[in-house]
Amino acid sequence: MLMQRTSKKELAEPKKGLMTKALILHAALEIASKSGLEGLTIGTIAEIVNMSKSGVFAHFGSREELQVEVVRAYHQGFEEQVFAPALSKPKGLPRLNQMIDSWLKMSVGGDTSSCFFISGAAEYDDRPGIVRDELVRSVEDWRAAMLRAIKESITAGHLKKSVNADALLFQLYSIVLGVHHDSRFLGHSKSLTTANKLIKEIFASNKVNK
Amino acid sequence: MLMQRTSKKELAEPKKGLMTKALILHAALEIASKSGLEGLTIGTIAEIVNMSKSGVFAHFGSREELQVEVVRAYHQGFEEQVFAPALSKPKGLPRLNQMIDSWLKMSVGGDTSSCFFISGAAEYDDRPGIVRDELVRSVEDWRAAMLRAIKESITAGHLKKSVNADALLFQLYSIVLGVHHDSRFLGHSKSLTTANKLIKEIFASNKVNK
């Protein structure tokens, strides 16, 4: 069989390639979380991972394709850190609350922990191309998950049937944008507390009275 | 007197200088509204206004100082287009409503009419320096005007005394961020309608019942 004839070295090659690619991606994610996706240059990455520019190019083809991979890697991390933990909560308001809570904590957690879904949106709203397309896909994916959680909250009887799910999604998403803006740009430390109180009030006024 | 001795040519010089400066600023504002403040380069501007790079430098000293002037020029335009018309409305809710309404219209008005107060915030939240400082000053100025209008709405008896003005400011500002995000990045054309409905509901639930 083909597999048995393959030497150990040959088997190791693609693995090594994958590891190098992962190393490059990791470095790229770090740079992008500080300087934005547009701050990514093949040159800077090559320097950090101690490779030649052409070595980095060999793994990604172009700067844009690297940026797309960075968005995908971020999306995957986001799913693991923000979305997956919420799935362990019961469907409905507990899950929706958990989703927003982790997202808020993650996006204002520290100097370098800007949420790409938010910072990238601002960076690419005027730049058409494959990076923007990938970002929009990621954001729409996350919004679809939130919308599902809102609808499940209605089905579960946690929120009133009269609630307009799309409008509530807009309202909640805007609040997270507000926290991101006020804490990162204006340096207002109280915005997270204000937002949490507001979210509680919004849910309370949309709750089914028992 | 000194004035009488000044030749026509000498008198015209500073005027010409001011006009050139205004011309450069105008070009810079156009570029920045398309490519962001970070997209501004002395080279591009020099090309558009048909001057040498050193000619442009002579008027602004540095790229950062030019960016600061662009923020100031934008702020001035914002005051004229958004703030001044609201001052003709009666103090309280009519004025507050007008402020938000013009701001929303302006920030989603067209492809190139992004609001610098919003796009700049995202661009500079991680970049300390004089441009960020100027932007923060402009945004805080606008927020102070909105806060004043909220407080006047309470004093005028249009909004309940129990309203937390800071929290309401956060809520309204977030909604505008949401419209900017959804319309410009996601291309959701309905976000303005959703936002206007939401703002009406927020004011209705905070209104004094007569």
Q: Which features does this protein show?
A:
Tetracycline Repressor, domain 2, mainly alpha, 210 residues, disordered N terminus, 10 helices, 0% strand, homodimer
Summarize the structure.
The structure is a homodimer of 210-residue chains. With 210 residues, the first copy, chain A, is an all-alpha fold.
CATH class of the domain at 71-206 in chain A: Mainly Alpha
Task: Please mark out the parts of chain A with pLDDT under 50 across 5 or more consecutive residues, or reply none.
Answer: 1-7
Question: What is the helix tally of chain A?
Answer: 10
What's the helix-strand series of chain A? HHHHHHHHHH
**Multimeric state:** homodimer
Quote the distance from N terminus to C terminus of chain A: 68 Å
Q: Average pLDDT value of chain A?
A: 88
How would you describe this structure to a colleague?
2 copies of one chain form a homodimer. By secondary structure, chain A is mainly alpha-helical. Chain A has a domain at 71-206: Tetracycline Repressor, domain 2. Helix content of chain A is 76%, strand content 0%. Chain A is built from 10 helices and no strands. The first copy, chain A, has helices spanning 2-5, 8-35, 42-48, 53-60, 63-87, 93-107, 116-124, 130-155, 165-185, 191-206. In chain A, α9 (165-185) packs antiparallel against α10 (191-206). The longest helix of chain A has 28 residues, at 8-35. The radius of gyration of chain A is 21 Å and the shape is elongated. The first copy, chain A, starts with a helix and ends with a helix.
